[in-house]
Amino acid sequence: MKRLVVSIFCLALAGCAIEKAEVKTPSFDEQLPAPQPSYANGSIWQASSAGYTEDNKARRKGDILTVVIVEQASASKEATTDTERKASVSAGVPNLLGLETNMTGIKNWMDLSNLLNASTASTYNGSGATTRKENLTATMSAKVVDVLPNGNFLIEGRRNVKVNNEDQIIILEGTVRPRDISQDNTVSSSLIADARITYTGKGVISDRQRPGWLMNFLDYIWPF
Prior knowledge:
The protein contains six helices and six strands, in the order H-H-E-H-H-E-E-E-E-E-H-H. It has helices at 2-16, 26-29, 99-102, 104-109, 204-208, 213-221; strands at 64-91, 116-147, 153-163, 166-176, 186-188, 193-202. It has a six-stranded mixed sheet with strand order 5-1-2-3-4-6.
């Protein structure tokens, strides 16, 4: 009885543990120091100054660009299987050296003309269909966390919107080519390589959409 009580108590403690959405990452929170001006060369133009011919597009580590997230995924699959097999076999010996007529004992308990008669049949019908459709539309800003040797940008961004104690969290990571960034410093999510877009929620509504810990435990150990 004591073991049962201890087991239930441990399960209750495990159910109280709520998984928190990981939002912060070291690369995102890294703060870049501001370049110190140096007038040793006698020029008022500094390396940190924007060039006269440069636009507002992100091009350095720490720059910010806008990502337009438009993700649409749709998949449909249908399969049907129909199989059937039939087999039959029969065997007999109508004439066996006249024994079938001369030996009364054989006639009484054996029909030589119908010694074996068997048949089998099997039928299988199966069908299945699955459909999945997802849409995600959002606009958020991301930071250039690194510039690769080939010139591509590693970007990372996050957005946390809290309404009525309900958190909506979007995390974006990926690689962008500078040529894919438009003149207004925006890029579409479809042009981001190795894109990892996470859209999660945390709050009362999100908690009610998940089954309880005991139900998850029973589904995990239930063998049928």
